[in-house]
Specification:
Blueprint: E1 22-24, E2 27-31, H1 37-45, H2 48-52, H3 68-84, E3 88-93, E4 99-107, E5 115-121, H4 129-143, E6 149-151
Parallel strand pairs: 5-6
Antiparallel strand pairs: 1-2, 2-3, 3-4, 4-5
Helix pairs in contact: 1-3
Length: about 160
């Protein structure tokens, strides 16, 4: 996923407290941590091709096959980024505590944006992607200290008849 220098400074103001929870669209966002490893691994590894077609993930090096142990190290890195305020990754949980997806909030790669945000949902939860996108977009606008966020919009899926 996003690789941040472990010595990078926080990218949010000192007085900003990153939310530890956000509930929206029947989903719950919580900081991603190693406690989610098995559920997170099952979610993304069953949906690699779907995630690669999700706006914001084209041309990225993740997702790619890796071991459960490698995934745990990746989650530990995301958790360390959250604590150090270098980046904020949230697991997306449904009402049954199953991992449905993730939301990543990291520094932008260009000077036109303050933050780069990406999110994905499991292939079997694809119908929830647009609602998650809208809720996160509004949450960022209303509760985060960013003026210019790069977050690939969702195009409504056409309905088959």
């Amino acid at each position: 996923m996003t690789s941040i220098d472990p010595n990078a400074p926080p990218f949010v103001p000192d007085d900003f407290v990153a939310p530890r929870a956000f509930d929206c669209a029947g989903l719950r966002l919580r900081p991603l941590d190693v406690e989610h490893n098995e559920r997170d691994y099952a979610a993304w590894s069953s949906s690699i091709e779907h995630i690669k077609t999700t706006p914001g993930f084209a041309g990225e090096d993740w997702p790619h096959p890796m071991s459960l142990a490698d995934n745990e190290r990746d989650l530990a890195r995301h958790a360390a980024d959250f604590v150090a305020r270098r980046g904020f990754t949230y697991t997306v949980l449904d009402r049954d505590d199953a991992v449905v997806g993730c939301v990543y909030i990291y520094p932008a790669r260009d000077s036109r944006h303050d933050a780069r945000v990406r999110s994905w949902v499991r292939a079997d939860c694809a119908a929830r992607d647009a609602a998650l996108y809208r809720a996160v977009r509004d949450w960022l606008r209303d509760g985060w200290p960013f003026e210019r966020v790069e977050y690939a919009p969702r195009v409504p899926r056409s309905r088959s008849t």
